[in-house]
Specification:
CATH class: Mainly Beta
Helix content: 10-25%
Largest sheet: 8 strands, antiparallel, barrel
Shape: elongated
Order of helices and strands: HHEEEEEEEEEH
Number of domains: 1
Radius of gyration: 20 Å
Distance between the termini: 45 Å
Structural class: alpha+beta
CATH topology: Porin
Strand content: over 45%
CATH architecture: Beta Barrel
């Protein structure tokens, strides 16, 4: 039941038409190829412009439908002032999450593709500070859940590589403690894709 709910949430932006589902079913009949992706997602946390670094590993069918899992984490320092034992202290936000994803290419022409990637993030966030002895302490922590639909434009080059850029939106839900920051915000994406499956296939055919 949980896996079906996850798949439904991932596919919501694809308008769930019978024709689309039939097309995805046909794509899945094609042999899968391994895809490795690195991306940098820009976004906003409260009033700060931030970056998330992510890596993904997945399978792609017919160069059209892709699915897999990744991990993303905050790489931009985000600080806030907190009160600890009556003293104002500077604290830092930490954030990382595992991200199952699907990615559908609805337009392809030559080296160009327009894709609809959707990922769900499941991870943890915390606000930490250094005490008087220099030890790192937790001020707050929480499980965090993200829903991130987007649209990207990709250009493929040198056969085994692709670069892409796009935009989307991040919806964030906290499970417990308030981290003191607003994590729901627009996102923009810059990424590099590598196609090791095709490298391996071409090497074996020689």
């Amino acid at each position: 039941m949980r896996s079906r709910l996850l798949l439904l949430l991932l596919l919501l932006p694809f308008s769930m038409s019978a024709q689309l589902l039939d097309s995805i079913g046909l794509f899945l009949q094609e042999p899968p190829r391994l895809v490795v992706r690195l991306d940098v997602r820009g976004s906003f946390i409260s009033n700060s412009n931030v970056r998330f670094l992510g890596a993904k590993v997945g399978l792609q069918h017919a160069r059209r439908f892709q699915y897999g899992v990744g991990y993303s984490f905050l790489i931009t320092p985000v600080e806030q002032e907190v009160m600890v034992d009556g003293v104002t202290t500077t604290a830092r936000l930490r954030l990382g999450y595992v991200s199952p994803y699907v990615d559908y290419a609805f337009y392809q022409r030559g080296p160009w593709e327009v894709r609809l990637p959707v990922q769900i993030g499941i991870g943890s966030g915390s606000v930490v500070y250094d005490d008087a002895e220099g030890r790192t302490k937790h001020y707050a922590r929480s499980m965090v859940f993200f829903y991130e639909p987007a649209m990207t434009v990709q250009y493929r080059f040198l056969k085994y590589f692709g670069i892409g850029a796009g935009w989307g939106f991040r919806l964030a839900i906290h499970s417990s403690n308030d981290l003191g920051e607003d994590l729901t915000a627009p996102i923009y994406i810059l990424g590099l894709r590598i196609f090791p499956g095709e490298m391996i296939r071409d090497a074996e055919s020689r």
